[in-house]
Design a protein that fits this description.
This is Clu domain-containing protein. The chain has 52 helices and 11 strands. The longest helix is centred in the first third of the chain and has 32 residues.
């Protein structure tokens, strides 16, 4: 619940936000000057020119004179100084009286929303303008990334050269107070993420250099050569700035500070970055185990970084920062160097018991307590033997020793931990909060590990680096930092619920649950390892049942959550999307077969393709792990020595791709003997689900590109895959060189890398003659072809990032697309600051394109008067909505920018659909048609097994044609939607049934009634089979409506009755007895059908085409009256009053229909009474008003003339009741209009039905006149009103004649 004070804060934020968005006070003027300067100072004109330049007038823009471009500088706002930004922000805060604590982000959902609003306010004062209409050639300019121009360098003046990056990252977290003395959380977050982005860019470059250093000496190097090339005396260039990555060997003094996990790992140091090239041991199974263990280290670092950021406010904690780089078949873990030679060794504060016996620790740390407890037991036992009555003392230490005397040696672990808790109360509290955030029991360290004995597990270390102020004083707590080491076992393990005979292990230490799974399942705290649960018999009160229960629930519940997520957010578009969806739902990739077993055929096909692509990746890795330098002890192959490792890796990639995508016996054998068995073993699919003929080759090619971290040239995707006669569709020249503007973002700083290697090879020439010979014969400049460095950044992105990521979903549900746009721009700022991949940035731009399109459509002109809805709707259907042209142009540019950054057209499908609609609304129909054709071609090539994507495209086209009023084209595209939906979901799925209704609507608007009826009948019959009463009732109403417009009243009557029978009980059971929506409209339609049927029967009887039974007609009239009066009873309040003068309200129209039916159903007796009353008036007619009225009546009746009193008066009375031929058939006299409104008010206010009012009038007339008729008398007024009704409706005589003729 939100407290009252929090509500006031939120309201104040909303008021501030509205002022900033609408531009009423000074903040809005400042924000407009900053954010919309292109649209302000001549911006509209510049924008229109820019729009013309981005379409048909592109050539004109290119030929524009330079003076015209210089006259309107588009980046004036973006180049303002930082001081102006700060002053604008401070002025806005002072003017709105914002408190400093508003910038602090809380943990709750309300605080998260509040954080987003603060972020939005902060953004509006940033000088980024990425959608500038004045910029004609490049209207979309992304926020600058710190590593875009050149490789960032950590070693700079003022920084320690050994720990430069660690110092820079730590300094970026230090909060600098603003004028009020409070830290600005948002500025700190951006500063920290920007520094992490610089570090990641430096790590990517350093990892590529380190990998090529490994390739440079694939067969080892003796100590003398190593010292020449990598040692401290190796040559340097350019004023001590150039030096290759330094290989750290076991003889190096730095080795104890950067020691890796495995013997096969190679460690380099470059620019204060420690680079671990993961190698594992000698054989491939250990290699895969090493890769997976390091991957869990990375996951643990990420989890701990988020936990520390959320729970710890102390600067003693070092936020884990790491970068994982996959390149050329290698995996490199990059971390900032923390310790230098001469620094004190790391102290274990808390960690595994097995390591505590030999680890170094300060007094009070676990190693010292463990050794002290061990020695205390021996000393206490000896003292007990020599002096059994000795008093131990009252201190806590003495009581602890006394407890150790009474416990067995196997049970004192709990006493040691209890003593550690007592000596570290503050640290214990912080660790408990982190463990709670991670969902762990105890602490976020591993006390008993599941890993093999030599491998280190999660522990907490205390470091005193010389770069930390106060580190020289061992007694100064400010000079220390707390670090987590090897956090592979932070997350709980996954229990093998059904171990196979050849693998009887219950727990595999490299198979663990994901954090998202723990969040999704809302489980209680779990033990971090299974070994802790196995120690229950030695005093640990921990059970393995929670782990088994969570593993079981994850297997049963998480796959369905994936499908629910896909249903709400749309299907993933590529391999990256599937990885994100599975991981966000807590499903490990190895369990994708569980998701596929529940998914639709299209989703299952995508998962089958993912399994094959990932299996091909592992087969490629296994091939490389059998060669040098990927395996340190692999055998030497002569021809590979002469080719070089880089070309060897490229040829292996081509072999894998050609075996998977080629044709011939070799390809078929590879599928049958290697690829399919590997996919079935790793992911649990059946072999028959992965057969070659089920797979779309071009989509598989793109998935393999993504997973193998390989890039081919753009035209390689058009190669003849799976085609007979093409066993090797891909050639070596198809591998990308990353020189084009499209592929360059995948390999930044390529030019700098090549320049480095030119110097590196020159370095060989400067060493000795032997090195020059190797340089001339074997060593060549790297080609950097095909493989690109894929970077995964591990750091704490903060609550501000989480707020910016989670807010778009909330705003989308609320249809607040302006907020979605603002928050997505924040995401773009953060993503560019940290240096996310091009695909991640493209995904954000794709969302921005959709948000801009929706904003443009929301700004379309809306009708001001409700009575003009029909006219304006007709106009909109013929011309389309008048959307905001500026937003449409921005949406188009953002969509095109997203397409360039995403891997393929399919990956940017939603952006393409937004661009299509934007072009259509901009009346660029030729470009829109061309885009539709391109999308259809790409869909046919890459994903014809994904009908949902084409369904969205066809649906968009159908909607656009409908807005234009081209109902034939709209119906054609809607019919395609129906076929695609039936293929994707099945004939009986709700989506398939729902699409039949728009198809029928399109045909009905084109007045092709037969096709409309066929579409509705198809949907109606399927809905009946599915037993969906609500859908069946709605479709029955639609079908009845079409039949009614067609003129088939008999058919409409049956379906309208079905709709009423199905919908009204559902509506009454859900609401408080009031009808609304479709049920109300169905009842209204049924009333009209009954009324028209009555009129049709009378017409048929009058033309002697059919014999009409009065009883049947009376029954039909009675049903129609009951329906109309029920409609009147449930009429909405907005339709009870007249819309404007001279137009009847809907209530009056219902009264008119009821009275028409009552007149139509008059019997012999009622009609005779009415004739008698009129005759009585005729007999007493004089010069009064009655005479004039009767004179008018007789004069308007053809062939009637006034007779003498009592002479043929009855004939005259009957003639007076006959209908009057009005000049306009639909025109209602003013008096009757007033009468209908009055009767309607009586029915709505007093609950008197119109039929009761009519019966009352008949009774009054039947009572007769007490004397001579007097104007104003009740009988007189009733007679006149009945006379007017009969003359207006004109059906009473027909009914009587029908009754008379039938009786005769």
């Amino acid at each position: 619940m939100i407290r009252e004070d929090e509500k006031e804060v939120i309201k104040e934020e909303e008021r501030l936000e509205e002022r900033l968005l609408k531009g009423s006070p000074a903040e809005a003027r400042e924000a407009d000057n900053v954010e919309e300067e292109g649209e302000g100072e001549g911006g509209e004109e510049a924008g229109e020119e820019g729009a013309e330049g981005e379409g048909e007038g592109r050539q004109e823009v290119e030929e524009a004179p330079q003076e015209e471009l210089d006259a309107k500088p588009p980046l004036q706002g973006a180049r303002q100084s930082q001081e102006a930004q700060s002053s604008a922000l401070e002025a806005a805060e002072k003017e709105t009286e914002m408190k400093a604590e508003d910038l602090h982000i809380g943990k709750g959902a309300e605080d998260m929303v509040k954080a987003v609003r603060v972020l939005q306010r902060f953004y509006r004062f940033k000088k980024y303008r990425w959608f500038d209409l004045g910029r004609k050639t490049h209207p979309v300019q992304l926020p600058e990334h710190p590593g875009d121009q050149q490789i960032p360098v950590g070693i700079q003046s003022g920084r320690d050269p050994v720990t430069a990056w660690h110092d820079a990252l730590r300094a970026s977290r230090i909060s600098e107070g603003d004028g009020s003395g409070e830290p600005n959380r948002i500025a700190i977050a951006l500063s920290y993420l920007s520094e992490v982005g610089r570090f990641a860019a430096a790590c990517r470059a350093a990892a590529v250099l380190a990998v090529h250093e490994v390739l440079l000496h694939p067969y080892g190097m003796d100590t003398q050569k190593h010292s020449k090339h990598h040692g401290p005396d190796s040559p340097r260039e350019d004023g001590d700035r150039f030096k290759p990555p330094q290989l750290v060997t076991k003889d190096d003094p730095l080795w104890p500070l950067v020691r890796p996990r495995f013997d096969g790992d190679r460690v380099y140091v470059h620019d204060s970055i420690v680079l671990t090239v993961i190698g594992g041991n000698s054989h491939e199974s250990s290699q895969e185990f090493a890769w997976r263990l390091y991957q869990h280290d990375v996951k643990g670092f990420q989890a701990l970084a988020d936990a520390i950021s959320s729970n710890s406010q102390s600067h003693h904690w070092a936020l884990p920062v790491a970068v994982l780089v996959d390149y050329l078949g290698f995996r490199v873990l990059c971390r900032p160097q923390i310790l230098a030679i001469g620094d004190p060794p790391a102290e274990m504060v808390l960690g595994p018991f097995a390591e505590a016996e030999v680890a170094y620790g300060a007094p009070g740390d676990l190693p010292e307590l463990w050794r002290e407890a061990t020695s205390s037991i021996d000393a206490a036992q000896q003292e007990q033997a020599t002096n059994p009555v000795a008093y131990p003392g009252d201190s806590a230490e003495n009581r602890w020793r006394q407890q150790l005397q009474t416990r067995s040696r196997a049970q004192f672990a709990s006493l040691v931990l209890h003593e550690w808790d007592r000596r570290h109360p503050e640290l214990r509290q912080e660790l408990a909060e982190m463990a709670s955030d991670l969902g762990l029991q105890g602490y976020p360290v591993c006390l008993m590990s599941d890993l093999p004995k030599p491998l280190a597990s999660t522990s907490l270390l205390r470091l005193r680096s010389h770069s930390i102020p106060g580190a020289r004083d061992p007694e100064n707590p400010e000079g220390e930092e707390l670090h987590f080491r090897s956090p592979a076992e932070v997350l709980p393990p996954e229990i093998n619920l059904d171990p196979k005979p050849n693998n009887s292990r219950i727990v595999d230490p490299v198979k663990r649950l994901r954090r998202e799974a723990l969040w999704s399942l809302s489980v209680p705290p779990l033990p971090p390892t299974h070994a802790v649960t196995a120690a229950a018999n030695v005093g640990q009160r921990v059970s393995s049942e929670p782990l088994k229960d969570v593993s079981n629930r994850a297997e049963r519940e998480l796959p369905q959550q994936v499908l629910d997520r896909i249903s709400s957010e749309g299907p993933p578009l590529d391999s990256r999307g599937w990885t994100e969806v599975l991981h966000a739902s807590g499903v490990n990739i190895r369990h994708m077969s569980r998701v596929a077993s529940l998914a639709s055929s299209s989703a299952a096909a995508s998962l089958h393709r993912e399994a094959l692509a990932r299996s091909a990746k592992w087969l490629l890795r296994k091939r490389l792990w059998k060669k040098k330098p990927w395996a340190t002890v692999a055998p030497q192959v002569i021809h590979e020595v002469h080719m070089g490792p880089e070309r060897t890796a490229a040829l292996e990639v081509l072999k894998i791709f050609n075996l998977v995508l080629g044709s011939g016996a070799d390809s078929e054998n590879f599928w049958e003997q290697q690829l399919v068995p590997e996919a079935a073993r790793r992911f649990g699919f059946a072999a028959k689900q992965l057969q070659r003929h089920h797979v779309k080759p071009h989509a598989l090619f793109q998935a393999m590109e993504h997973h193998c971290r390989v890039k081919f040239e753009l035209d390689a995707v058009s190669r003849p895959f799976f085609r007979a006669g093409y066993p090797n569709p891909l050639k070596e020249e198809d591998l990308a060189l990353f020189t084009s503007s499209t592929l360059q973002p995948y390999f930044p700083h390529l030019a700098a890398m090549k320049d480095h290697w030119i110097r590196r090879l020159e370095h060989y020439d400067a060493v000795d003659e032997e090195s020059r010979q190797i340089r001339d014969h074997l060593l060549q400049e790297p080609s950097f072809q095909g493989f690109w460095p894929d970077v995964r950044i591990i750091c704490s992105r903060g609550e501000e990032w989480s707020a910016a990521v989670s807010a778009p979903t909330k705003h989308t549900r609320e249809n607040r697309w302006d907020r979605v746009f603002q928050v997505l721009k924040l995401q773009l700022t953060f993503a560019r600051a940290i240096g996310d991949s091009p695909a991640a940035v493209g995904g954000i731009l794709q969302g921005i394109a959709v948000a801009l399109l929706e904003m443009a459509k929301q700004s379309a002109e809306k009708p001001e008067k409700p009575d003009e809805l029909d006219e304006i709707a007709t106009a909109m259907q013929s011309r389309g909505p008048k959307a905001d042209q500026t937003c449409l142009k921005k949406a188009l540019w953002a969509a095109d920018a997203a397409t360039k950054m995403l891997p393929s057209t399919i990956s940017s499908w939603w952006a393409q659909l937004a661009a299509l609609e934007a072009e259509w609304l901009l009346e660029k129909h030729v470009e829109a048609h061309s885009r539709v054709q391109r999308l259809q071609t790409d869909w046919d090539r890459f994903c014809p097994d994904q009908p949902v994507l084409m369904l969205r495209l066809e649906g968009t086209a159908a909607r656009l044609y409908a807005q234009q009023g081209d109902w034939a084209s709209a119906a054609m595209h809607t019919e395609r939607c129906c076929a695609l939906a039936e293929r994707a979901f099945g004939r009986t799925h709700g989506a398939t049934i729902a699409l039949r209704a728009p198809l029928g609507d399109a045909w009905s608007r084109r007045e092709d009634w037969d096709k409309a009826v066929a579409a509705y009948q198809e949907a109606y019959s399927v809905a009946q089979v599915c037993s969906d009463e609500k859908t069946t009732g709605r479709l029955a109403f639609e079908l009845a409506q079409v039949l009614f417009f067609k003129g088939d009243l008999t058919g409409a009557k049956g379906f309208a009755e079905d709709a009423v029978k199905l919908l009204i009980p559902l509506e009454l059971g859900r609401s408080s007895g009031q009808l609304s929506g479709t049920s109300f409209e169905a009842l209204t339609l049924l009333s009209k059908v009954y009324e028209d049927l009555c009129q049709r029967f009378l017409e048929l009887h009058e033309t002697e085409q059919a014999e009409v039974s009065p009883a049947m007609l009376q029954a039909l009239v009675s049903k129609a009256i009951k329906c109309f009066e029920t409609v009147l009873k449930n009429l909405p309040a907005s339709e009870q009053a007249p819309r404007r003068a001279g137009v009847m309200s809907r209530a009056a129209q219902i009264v008119q229909s009821v009275l028409r039916l009552k007149v139509m159903g008059l019997g012999d007796s009622e009609y005779s009474v009415l004739v008698d009353a009129v005759e009585e008036l005729l007999l007493h007619a004089s010069v009064s008003e009655t005479a004039s009225a009767l004179q008018r009546a007789m004069s308007q009746t053809r062939g009637v003339r006034q007779l003498q009193p009592r002479a043929e008066t009855r004939a005259v009375a009957e003639a007076a009741l006959r209908p009057v031929e009005l000049e306009h058939a639909e025109e209602v006299p003013v008096k009757l209009m007033e009468l209908f409104e009055e009767v309607a008010r009586e029915a709505l206010i007093n609950g008197i039905p119109p039929s009761n009012w009519f019966d009352h009038m008949v009774r009054v007339v039947a009572e007769g006149f007490a004397g001579a008729p007097v104007p104003g008398d009740a009988t007189y007024l009733a007679t006149i009103q009945m006379l007017e009704l009969c003359r207006f409706f004109g059906n009473a005589a027909r009914v009587i004649m029908c009754a008379t003729s039938s009786s005769q």
